[in-house]
Amino acid sequence: LPARPRIWILLISGVTSASSDDVSSSAPKEDDVPDGPTAAALIRGGLHWQDLGVALDIPVVGSVAQLSATNTSKTWSPDTPWLLSPSSGYVPNGCICAILGPSGAGKSTFLNAIGGTTPKSSELHLTGSVWYEEDSADDMGGFRLSHQKGEIAMLHQHDNFFEGLTPRESLNFAAYLEGENRRLRSLESECKVTPEYKATPGTYHADTDRKLTTLGLQACADRKIGDRSKLGGPSTSLGWGIRRKRRRGASRGGLSGGERRRLSVAIELLSEPRVFLADEPSTGLDSAQAEKVVKLIKKLSIERGIPSICSLHQPKTAIWDTLDYFILLAPGGKMCYAGKRDAATSYFEDLGYKCPLQTNPAEYLIDLVTIDTDDSTQSALDEARINSLHHSFVESIKSG
User: Is the Cβ–Cβ distance between 166 and 222 less than 8 Å?
Assistant: First the structure.
């Protein structure tokens, strides 16, 4: 790719309301560049964020919002009701990063904020900056990605398909729509329509076959997607001992949960995104299928050279070992760790929290940032521990 000018996308010039996809850009001062891991990563390609936060409201004195960056001497107002406390970090290209934490820690909020998909109707306030950098040594600048242009793929928790179509038909249809989107975007920008925007049905079909093979969907490519929640065996019970026979030619079960998830991944990747985001891609899957989906996402990240970030709920040890990076969020969106997975246990051990032998580190760390709401005394201790972990992480970012 040709070198691009350095462009820093700031979601604050004070504060902006959601969605982050509509904010303007401006260049930050040199003093605003964070120290530590984020600063060291500026020469590396990947997805970066600085002081990214989401709040229900920003306390205002007069007409000026009380703002600051976590890497300066100023502090945020203690009255700010954060859903996601301001944090900084990055995920390199070709790596998979998991967001871990208990329910209500802000995992989905973080994904929406970093992907620019926070709904305007939410009336949330976003702060900070998000940008992407290429791997090329000739391209030292950062630029903003757009979800609407297909540069960011977002895999949601629940799959939405036309149940009467097959995976092959679904991919062909989605490929056609993506081709039309590209053609229209090229016309809007008054650019010459290149051959890739004039793909024929034969081109779509060839691309579909490649994706079906890559994602292991060839065996079910021509099976109706169906809805297993609405299907029984040869007959369906209607109650009172009455059973309705399944009509001839009807689906015998549709796709499994793992197959549906892989099909969702295939559809999201049609736009050739630079960043792949997934909100709990293992939802509704057993541990074996969940592991396959996570390993598939990592494989695609490596092959395409893009960063992938996904929220995970209690990943098993095999999934933990698959991760390159991970982010640990505590209630209130307090980031207690963001970095390499293989350096996490030693980091927390230095803070006095050693993961016991034969214990899944993911489970141990999630328990470390969980608050026991049934016991007021234990709850106070948990909150004090979380505040200490969050403070230690922020200080480690400052010190580099």
Answer: yes
Query: What DSSP line would sit under 177-196, residue for residue?
Result: HHHHHHHHHHHHTT----GG
**Residue carrying the six token digits 């997934």:** 278
Give the pTM.
0.75
Task: Tell me the two tokens of residue 264.
Answer: 């969702």
Note the pLDDT tens digit of each residue in 257-266.
888 888 888 8
Going by their DSSP bridges, the two strands 64-65 and 275-279 should be labelled as unpaired
Residues 62 and 305: their CA atoms lie apart, in Å, by: 47
For residues 37 and 338, what is the distance between their CA atoms, to the nearest angstrom?
10
**CB-hemisphere CA count at 13 Å for 171?**
31
For 50, left (φ over 0), alpha (ψ -120 to 50), or beta?
Answer: beta
Q: What is the largest CA-CA distance in the chain?
A: 75
Rounded to whole angstroms, how far apart are CA atoms 134 and 287? Answer: 35
Residues 6/142, Cβ–Cβ less than 8 Å: yes
Q: Is a pLDDT exceeding 90 seen at residue 100?
A: yes
Structure tokens at 68: 């600051």
Tokens describing residue 172: 């062909």
